[in-house]
Amino acid sequence: MSIEIDHVNKHFRDFVAVDNVSLTFRDGELTALLGPSGSGKTTLLRIIAGLEQPDTGRIRFHGEDTTDLHVSERGVGFVFQHYALFKHMTVFQNVAYGLTVRPRKTRPSKDEIKQKVMRLLELVQLDWTAHRYPHQLSGGQRQRIALARALAVEPKVLLLDEPFGALDAKVRAELRRWLRRLHDDIHVTSVFVTHDQEEALEVSDRVVVMNKGRVEQDGSPEDVYDHPANPFVYQFLGNVNLFHARVHDGIARIGDIQLPAPEFQGYKNEQGQAYVRPHEIEVFAGREHADALHAKIELVSVVGPTVRLELRTDNSEELIHAELTKHRFRALGLAQGGDAWIRPTYSRVFLPDERVSNG
Amino acid sequence: MTTPSTVIDTNDTIAKRWRRATEEPAWIRITLITIALTFLTLFLVLPLTVVLYGAFERGIGVWYAAVSDPDALSAIRLTLLIVAIVVPLNTLFGVAAAWSIAKFEFRGKSILISLIDMPFAISPVVVGLIFVILFGSQGWLGPWLSAHDMRIIFAVPGIIIVIAFGTLPFIARELIPLMQQQGKEEEEASLTLGANGWKTFWYVTLPNIKWGLIYGIILCNARAMGEFGAVAVVSGRIRGETNTMPLHIEVLYNEYMFTAAFAVSSLLTGLALVTIAIKSAVEWNEERRQRIAAA
């Protein structure tokens, strides 16, 4: 079932939560709505579910207008950040809820409900918890029960609001891989909201980056990461260093370093910002390249197999972040407080009016 | 053999030290407990004992005669009638008010919250006077009421109105913070699962607010039975007609019938104790059910 969002607007008093958004989620796709807090991603998800009403604009499921349909009739499965399990009901009663509250005409028999609930509990690998209460389960288990409960009503679309946001890092990583596999099995059109770029890139078929109520970029995870459409997306997806750059005839200059910027062929002496990822900065212990920038190493932090450096160049106030393998760091013999020479190997330049180039 | 015992010893010391680190010194504990117990004895246990002693001082026969007196029976009947009307009414209002305040955003919400507290702030005597001015024969609506042959002041409707007014905040006050703290996620989950508003209320909201609601009902009930000041103003104290139990007790007391006054008091106190006992029983039963389910 595809979801079509057609020029949707929503504001709360003076705050514009969703600003004229149009999007289409294709049938069977798992899409991540990615953005910082306050970017309108959760509001958009709640509008799709019918938990919020848009000020203007329409929502269509598979071409059918559902904007004015009550939540309970939309057939959406909704998973909340804090699980929202019914505290006073057992796990079994929670999962069965959507079936037991149906009007008698469409309600399955007790045996059918029991079979279905146990099948779903097996699917989320928690059939042994059927008679427990939610407070007796861990966060990860609760969220899996919440997912089973949402799936019990056979929703046309599955909407997840920061589903792993309240879990610790390890459980989170496990659960998102598990969600990916589950989605590959059941293929229900799914949209999940997250502010964690790693999660979005790892789990989804497609990433929609949002900021200030607007869609900044919409594409495959690879596309969004490798070819950010604008400075916001660049900065939001991972760490990035900014350098002042001068663009001239297809060449971007950072100090004496020249990087190709073929899209700026014909531009004369334009000032822009070069965006360089930490792993795209080469670090040397000596002045091996004439154009490398001299810098002081202010901080060394070892994070597992990689080493992160904070450096300060002679003519910049801002810190430069560089990342290299522990192996290379040892080979170079660098130390905190020592000298180093750095050189960007790849950059992407944005001119103030957002004309773009790869270098 | 020696190693395990050493381990146990160490654990013991750690446990002792830890306990000391998080607890107050003994003298503070003993002082606080003594203060609490002294107050409870002085202001709760002692008066209760006095009531019971006074009631049964001259034997069960005298007690029974006092509570089976026609005027006393009428007062008991009236009090129970008032409770039967006022408590459901305020339960309905309390749930509706708490629901709208906790779950919806609307203009005038803060005004509604402060209005709910009003009956607590106004003296009961003033409450009684307000309704006398409104409905009394000299009051604003008095002529219209007497023209239509309706009596509110110095009659049962007036008593019900002032008691409903006085006990209005109890249930709402109990539920508002509870429902605000619980938020609306569970209700939203229920709606997305296809339940309509009524089923969501019945299966999700009500079980979640159950204890607050029961507690509010008990408080409301106790106050409805015991309300004195406002009732004294509007009832007219017609014996056998508009005397509630507290008013009847005062009449007896003023007529120097101390034993009878204490007898009816003991009955009123007993009714309050019964509601608390019911609450405890329900609570205990619920806990046991949860324990069995968890095991």
From TrEMBL, chain A:
Q: Which InterPro entries match?
A: AAA+_ATPase, ABC_SmlMolc_Importer, ABC_transporter-like_ATP-bd, ABC_transporter-like_CS, CysA_C, Mo/tungstate-bd_C_term_dom, P-loop_NTPase, Sulph_transpt1
Which Gene3D superfamilies is this protein grouped with? P-loop containing nucleotide triphosphate hydrolases
What SUPFAM superfamilies would the database entry show?
MOP-like (SSF50331), P-loop containing nucleoside triphosphate hydrolases (SSF52540)
Q: Name one Pfam family in it.
A: TOBE_3
> Per the database record, which ranges form the ABC transporter domain?
3-237
How is this protein annotated for GO cellular component?
Answer: ATP-binding cassette (ABC) transporter complex
Residues passing through the membrane, by range: none
Q: Which CDD domains match?
A: ABC_CysA_sulfate_importer
What Gene Ontology molecular function terms does this protein carry? ABC-type sulfate transporter activity; ATP binding; ATP hydrolysis activity
Q: Which PROSITE patterns has this protein been placed in?
A: ABC_TRANSPORTER_1 (PS00211), ABC_TRANSPORTER_2 (PS50893)
What the entry lists under NCBIfam families is as follows:
3a0106s01
Q: What is this protein called?
A: Sulfate ABC transporter ATP-binding protein
Q: Which organism is it from?
A: Vreelandella nigrificans
